[in-house]
Amino acid sequence: MAESQHQSADAEREVPVWDIGVRLFHWALLALVVTSFVTIKIGGDAFTYHVWSGYGILTLLVFRLVWGFVGGTQARFAAFVRGPGTVIGYLKGMFDRAGHRPSPGHNALGALSVLAMLAVLLFQAVSGLFVNDDIAFEGPLYKWVGKELSDRLTGLHHFNEKVILALVVLHIAAIAFHFFYHRENLVRPMITGVKRVRGAVAESRHGSAVLALVVLAASGAGVALLVNAAR
Predict the structure, then answer these.
(1) Which fold does the domain 18-212 belong to in CATH?
(2) Please, where are the H alpha helices in the chain?
(3) What is the pLDDT of residues 166-204, one digit of tens each?
(4) What residues does each domain of the chain span?
(5) Tens digit of pLDDT for each residue in 66-86?
(6) How far is CA 82 from CA 91, 107, 122, 182, in A?
């Protein structure tokens, strides 16, 4: 009887993880970040698409920040932002194959990666509103800060590009590590919205798709108002 209960408690089952808001945010953000990098390297007329992709990224980031409080269970910051003790404990056991249990949402280290990525992308998108190229382009909010501060933000904007690339490489490396070392597919749940886990996990739910659309529309409207504020 005890053995049967143990097998049941340790059995695999599918649980809702990433709701439609998180999934659309993730893949749309990926597409826009790639667009931003490609268009800035091409330059010329493609720079217009770099600017528009920046506005799109800012819209998505505003959406994600709001969704972190009103979205589904695993989308909320309260579900995955943890203290340093939890992160250290995860690091100590991250190479333990036998004791590894897939986390329903972000694991302790993954949560830090998410927060770091949100922070650097938010800085990149916001600083882009103030930059200039000393030739023909000035960000829509350039007049709010003037040439000296704009030049500083432009330098930081260029440097932060390297930080973003480093975090993207670490993100891909983490996905590969979990796939090859722990046999855990982190990509599939970001497509399907569900994840196979073992053992007892707290109940979770997906956020409302209608609410996600409302928050996204409001985020886009807010960014549009900001961009046009100085015009």
Answers:
(1) Fumarate Reductase Cytochrome B subunit (1.20.950)
(2) 2-9, 20-42, 47-70, 77-80, 84-93, 108-127, 146-180, 188-192, 209-227
(3) 999 999 999 999 999 989 999 999 999 998 877 656 678
(4) 18-212
(5) 999 999 999 999 988 888 888
(6) 13, 9, 21, 22
